[in-house]
Structure formats: C-alpha cells, structure tokens
Model the fold of this input.
Amino acid sequence: MKHTKHTLSMLSVALLAGAAQAGTLSIESWRVDDKALWEDVLIPAFQKKHPGITVKFAPTAPTEYDSSLTARLTGGTAGDLITCRPFDKSLDLYKKGQLEKLDGKPGMQHFPASAKVAWQSDDGKDSFCMPMASVMHGFFYNKKIFADLKLAPPKTQAEFFAALDKVKAAGKTPIALGTADQWEANQIVFTGIGPNYWQGEAGRKALIAGKAKFTDPQFVAVWEQMAKWAPYLAKGYSAQTYADTQNLFASGRAAIVPAGSWDIAYYKQQGLDFGAFAPPVAKAGDKCQISDHTDIGIGINPKSKNKADASKFLEWIASAEFADLYTNKVTGFFSLSSHPIEVKDQVAKSMLDWRKSCGSTIRLNAQVLNRGEPNMETELWNVNSQVLNGKLAPKAAAQQIQAGFAKWYKPQQ
Amino acid sequence: MRQPVSHLAGSSFTHLVLAGYTLLSLFPLFLVLINAFKSRAGIFDAPLALPNGETFSTIGFEKVLGKAHFLGFFGNSLTVTVLSLVLILLFGAMAAWALSEYRFRGQRLILLFFAFGIMVPIRLGTVAILELMVKLELVNTLSALVLVYTAQGLPLAILILSEFIQQIPKELKEAARCDGVGEFTIFFQIILPLIRPAIATVAVFTMVPVWNDLWFPLILAPGEATQTITLGVQQFIGQYATDWNAVLASLSLAVLPVLVIYVFFSRQLIRGITAGAVK
Amino acid sequence: MNRIARWQIAIFLAPALLIYASFSAWPLLDTLGLGFFNTDEAGQQHFAGLANYYKLLLDPQWSDGFWNAMGNNVEFFFIHMLVQNPIGLLLAALLSLKGVRFAKSYQTLLFLPTLLSVVIIGFIWQLILSPLWGVAESLLAQVGLAEHFQPWLGEEGSALLTLALISVWQFIGIPMMLIYAALIAIPEEVIEAARVEGASAWRIFWQIRLPLILPTLGLVTILTYVGNFNAFDLIYSVKGALAGPNYSTDILGTYFYRTFFGYQSQIGSPTMGAAVATLMFLVILAGVGVYFFAVQRRLQRHAF
Done:
C-alpha cells in the first residue's frame, strides 16, 4: 500500500517537473521533523474532506529553508503553499509580491487579532499568512534526578541556582546547553528567560517606541544571568550542537534543559520522564512572563496555478479539526485559532497553563527590530553565544546590540 | 656494509610514514563503519570497540532502509555524474583540439573566456541559472544538473587537454593530412586515443566535485525523484540528527557504494592520473 | 597555417562554447553586473554605481565582516600551503622511491577521503571531536595526553585551524598524486648519473628532483589557492552559515552566502551579494595573475 503511494507520488513529481498542476498542492516548509505526520495524519484527514486534491509536503532543512525558498520563489518554482516565518521575513516576501493577500479569505475569521499580527503589514491592513501555531519556551527537568535529589521545580532564581548547585554536587550535568549552533542561545535562552526581567510586552514595546535601550538594567540583567550559567554546562559545551544537547538530556545525564515546546515530542518518544517549569522569577510573588511565540503561518504563492484548491486547503487549516490534530499530534505546537482545543499531553498542557498566570510576549526581536542592518537576530545569536562562552561581558554585549540597533532605527537615535 | 643498513632504516621509515598516514586516512571511516553495527548503548559507552555479541545491532540500518530511498538517490547521482563526465570529456576535447591545433581570429579571446570560468565559482551565478532553467522547464530534472556540471567542468578540462594535445608530435597529424584524411577522422581516430591518459586525469578531477555537490541539487532538483545521494544523506542527517544509529547507518550506506566503485576502478583511476607523466 | 574550413573549427568549438556560455559564463556575468545595482523594498533593482563596493570596503558594518572573512581565508590558505602541500610532497616522494612495497595500495587508500562527500566528512569529524562522545579524548588518553583535549571546533582560537586540518585531511590526495606523477616522470638517467657520482638520496631529492618538479609545485599552489578562496561546503556543513564562534571560521564563501541568500531573519540581498562575488573574483584573478606572470614565466615548462 505505502509502496504504491510512494511510487505514485514519485511518478507525479517526475511528470510535473516542479510547477504544480491543477489538483495537486505542494507545501513548502522547514518542519522536516513533521514530514511523517503530514503524510500519515494531516494530509489523509484533508483528503477525506476534499477527495481529488493531492497534497505533497515538501520540507527543506531549517537552515536552508529561507535561502532555497527565496531562490525558488524568484525562479518561480516554489510550491503552492508557503509556510511562513513570523513578522519581517514574511513581510519582506509579501512586499516583493511573493505572497498572496489573504484578507477576507474563508477561515481567516477564526483567528484573533493577536495571532494575525505576526503576518500583517505594519498598518495592519493586509494579512498575508494564516496563523498556524505558536511555541512556548521554558525549562524541562528530569523527574528522576529531581526526585533523587529531593528537588522541586524552582520558582525563583535563587531556587534555580540552588538546584543547579545540588545537581552539580551530585555529579550530573546541571544544564544541557551548547553554543555550537548558536540559535538556541537566543531563541530559547535570551528571549526565553528575558521577559521576566524586561516585563514581557512592556519591555518589548518600549524598545520599539524608543523609550528603552538594551543598555538599560532590565536588559543587561539577562546577560548577567546567562554569564552565570557557564559552570553548570557540560564540559566542552562550546562545541556542543543542539542534537548533542538533546542526546544529553534524553540519556538522563543532565537535569535541566532550556527548551521549546516543540521538543516535547522528541523527549517523549525517547521515553524520558520529564516535566516543565517556566523561567524562574526574581523573587517569590513576582508575576511571571513567558515567551509565547507566534511561530508558524501558512500563505499562498501568487504564482500557484491552483489557487482555488490552495484556498480550500487554508480553509481546512482554519478548521477545528486541524487545530485539534495539529495541537495533539504535533505535540508542542499550539494552534492559534480561537477554536477551544483540549490539549492531551501532560507536559504540553502544563506549559499551556502558564498562560493563565503569566504574561505572554513573543521573541523580543521578532517584530520590527530584525528589520535593519546589521540584522539583530544574527547579532543576538553571536553575542548571546559569546556571553555563554564567557568571551563577552554582559555590559559589552548590551552595548554591541544597542549600537547596531541605534545605527538604523530612528526612534533609538 | 653500511649501505644495506641505511637502506633498511630508510625503508622502515618510509613504511612508518606511509602506513601511519594511511591509518589516519582510514580511521574515521573505520569508526563510522564499526559503530553503525552497534546498539545505542554500545555506541556511547565504547565508541572505539568493535561490535561484539552484546553490542551488535543493525537497528540503524533497519530504520534507514525503511525510510530513505538510497538506491534511487544513488542511481540519480550515478546518472548525473556519468552523463556530465561524458559531455565534459567529449566537448572539452573537441574544443581543446580546435583551440590548440588551428589558428583563427578570436582564438585568444575564446581562451580567456574559458579561463574566466576557472576563476569564478559557478555558484555565484545561481539565481540566473535557476531563472534560465525555469524558462527551459528543466527544474527538477536531472538534465538541469548535467548541463550545469558540464558548463562548470569544461574550462578546466579544456585547459588540461590543450596542454596534452600540444605535445602530440606534429608529424603524426601531418602524415595523416598528407594521406588526405579529414580533420574529424584525425581527431576521433588519432588524437582521442592518444590523449586517453589525460582524459582519465580530467575525469577524476571533474568527477569528485560533481558527485559531492550539495548546492545545485538543493536549488535545481530537490524533488524526491531527482534527489542525489549527497542531498539525500544531508537531509536525512538533518532529520535524524539525534538518532545516532540511523545517522551512522546512513553515513555507511552513503560511503559504501563509493568504496565499492573505487575498489573496482582505483587502478585505472590512479593510472590515469599518473599516466600523463609516463610517456 | 593549416588550411581548414571555418565551419570545421566552428563544429569543434560549438558544443563546449554553447553550454559554457549559457549555463556558466552568462549567469556569472549577470551576477557580476548586479553588483552595480541596489534593491528596494519591492524587490526592484536600480543602478547604484559603486555604492555597494564603497559600503563593502569602507562602511565598518560591512567591511569588518568582509576583512575578517578575508583574513580567515588567507589563514585557511596558508594552513593548506604549510601542512597539506608539504605532507603531500613527502608522501609522493616516499611513494616514488624505487621498490617500495605496497606503493599502489598506499596510493589507493590515501586518495580515498578525497572522494567522499564534504557533508559526510564534516559530520564524521564533528563526531570524532565531540566532547560528549569522547573519541578524540579517549584516544589522547591512551597516549597520556587526555588533559590536552579541548572542544577545538567550539573555541575561537582553534576552530578555523581545526577545520583547515579537516580539509587538509580530505584533499591531501590531490597534491600527492600530482607531485607523484611529476616525480616518476623524471628520466631515470638523470638520477642514475647523480648516483654514480656518489650523491646521497637526500641530495638527489633536494638538488635534482625538487627543482625538476617546481612547475608542478606551482600548479599545486595555484590549484590550492583557487580551491581555498572558493571554499564553502565544509565550513557550512560543520559551523553553519554564521561560521561561529564569533565569526572566527567565516571565510569569503560563507560571507557571500549570508549576504546573497540571507540567513534566518537576515534578508538576503542579491545585489550586495553580487558585489561580494565580484570581489572574490578579483581576489582569485589577482592570485592567478601572479601565478601566470611571475611564477610560470620563470619556471621552465614541464609536462605534469
């Protein structure tokens, strides 16, 4: 059965030679890990509702996604449906006419404004991608190690470091984290633990409004906390990749890993008994702030020869059925639609519950801040890794980011 | 009496260096191959140990063979490499012959034009190449790759082959011409067989980058049906970065065909490279 | 000289010219031309003269990165020249000695890594040097040097050197083979004559064989130069496009990639990328120019 399906899809790809034909949709995505899920669960569910439309999920590795997508869009060979990165990256595609305007399309009414904003023009008038899912950031802990050492998930920073010291004394690696790949130093660590310091949305908006600077204490403090982590990381962490980190935590040799909700699926599959805790606050009683990031959207390629079917697909993406399937099968990605969804996985549910008590914000630099040159995302990867490596002082890190920011951003000059 | 002793010392030094470096060349491959046949625990606990009764496992291969279509990927790579090689060698030799044998206007210009291609990596022209392939409706076909690799390999091929053609004794060609043999016959029946060793040299130099290229398959032919082995392995590694059994198994599978082919052809290959010198 | 119809020359040249011109030269010229334009928000391109080059060479925001990549690339090249080519020469010299047993087998095995994909090479070495897996560390421990183990690929001071050595490991076969071919081409009588006069093997090598293979060493140098200034794959597959830590492994190829295609939320600029490409071209052209005019003219031509 499966074999026949594969042969057929091979044949169709060979015949179509890139450009899509009526009745076939091809999805561009960076979610290589979800390929099996799309092929075995999501696409069959869609086809039950819309027989006759063939859908092909064609992911590219995350590191190559943006460059090869740009090349394919420019060359006119990109798929019909484009998975959208949030904010400026997709906005750039829209401005170049490489994404279709989606306002008024069926299904868009199912999303709250807070979700749609990640894929809208600055004036909020044009939407160009349908929100699909958000991810949340925090820490996972190994339940067995915590139980053995009689530790409770830390709520304050004092408790956090006390726990780290205890784990270290017991001969295990306290924090699984490396700086070889660099991205996690920003997308999980800096923008994950930071909102507690800069007060989430308030701090982010102040930067955009030009009322706060990275050299202000509430930002420098984040780098100061990161600089304290070095003694708790595994030996040789400067050459440790993200995959190494996952292996280290999955094998039970590390007590804590700073993680994103998307990692739930992997650790679960490895059979690890783990729980999650939100980034610890400064002192007991403080309101917690979490990074609850609108991460994935989906849009239509204006050059698609099959826009009618593409719209049908988007309408299905907006349905309660998809929201449920995506949230519960692709564990760790939370649907952004306003359909009420029951989350079945315990870890995922506990993370989602943070929303009830904590303030939510997105990754600090995702909106507007990434727009200029030097690019802040790239700068932050580098600077944050260097702070973790102990090669850059927190103050110097703040100055470097602020200088780059002020260089092009008028309200900061 | 001294002669044999120093000779012996010299020869053991020679073998020490050669064998030592050979070991260094092979060790990483050896490491991958032995660990591919071990269980997860075996891989982590004793990476340097050979698989034994306790640690032997083929789980990685079971995972990989079920999921990836290595045979198909391998076929694609082979098709692209062989076709590109044939075109580069044939067209390259023809052009090299024309450029070194005849005098005509614009000859220097054409030589310079080809030399330009040695100096600039073709990757810099990616977007223009992609646009061209789209117009020709060649995207996601192996032909697109063959054309690009041929264009990429021609300059160096022409340079090396011209050098050889210039060394062919004049008398040979003149004698043929006196007998009234046509230029095409001279080229195909006299010249081509004579420059065979040079052709082997060029073949080796062009084959390696074509076989190993990651870039153009990614941009021009990423479709499942046209994926090359390098791209296939790269994506597979990306997908299973944390599953070392699968990663090591797929690395082994990617390396093995190359090893087999190399074992069969290494003699011809090396003779090809060195034959240029033994006149 | 030869009486030959023009159409015959045309037929010999046409296929190569046609394929090369349309799939290599034209796209490349198109890219080089792009360097004189800039892109606006809507993706339209406007003529901008030398503005991109001015930015790249004089605006610290761009020039710091460019010169850093340039410096690293020069270092990358020198490591190859100091390690790869001398070792290649040594191996070739030993292989070309008379009556070395297993010479053919050594050649076959030493050339093997060259045939493997960079993706595979990068991954294998990353595993070997990984501090978590501990292969390199336990190997060092066996010779009592365990405390010298460092996460070399992760340290700013050693990452570039480590990557260059991996590249040397892979490509050693090429200089070795080229030099070997040149060495065995030296007529036996020349060496025999020296030997009769009582010259030692050492002297024969330095005073007779080495001078005779100088043209090949020149060729190896220029091939290394062109190869190194075009390098990209290994660094990209091991360190990613950001070439960390702190850009210490950034070379022109990775710098070009980031500029041209962008990276993550950094948006690529084909026009700025084209300017980088043009500068890379000029660097390579300069090297090739030096080779042709300064080196090759002096050395007597000798078939390799």
In short: The domain at 50-298 of chain C is CATH 1.10.3720.10 (MetI-like fold).
